[in-house]
Design goal:
single chain, 7 helices, mainly alpha, about 70% helix, globular, Globin-like, about 0% strand
Length: about 120
């Protein structure tokens, strides 16, 4: 897979949000009853970030994780919950192991940077 494989990255986002749906702590951060839009936005972001079409920028604007997450108090616990659901989603999607490793490395680094509450 080249990392910009749109169908696989969109599936990754869908599977990730399937886990978030059942996580009462993370779920509380999302005001919408339906997480379909959140999954779509994450998928578009990943596709664009990894070299695919720029749908995210066209629809949502400049793709800055820090700017988008500033309003949310993100603790180490939330980071770890988020990463746990992403690890599960990565295991469920047919992405080559070297690409999974690249994605996981990126997810863990970005999640660490987004923690904004001690």
């Amino acid at each position: 897979m080249r990392l910009a494989n749109e169908p696989l990255l969109m599936e990754l986002a869908d599977r990730f949000y399937s886990g978030v749906t059942d996580d009462r702590v993370l779920r509380a951060l999302y005001p919408d009853a339906d997480l379909t839009a959140a999954a779509r936005h994450l998928g578009w972001f990943l596709v664009e970030f990894w070299g695919g079409p720029i749908t995210y920028s066209k629809v949502r604007g400049y793709p800055s994780l820090r700017i988008r997450h500033i309003p949310f108090p993100i603790t180490a616990e939330l980071r770890d919950r988020w990463l746990g659901h992403m690890r599960t989603a990565l295991a469920e999607v047919a992405i080559d192991e070297p690409d999974k490793a690249k994605l996981w490395q990126w997810f863990t680094a970005e999640a660490e940077v987004l923690v904004n509450v001690p």
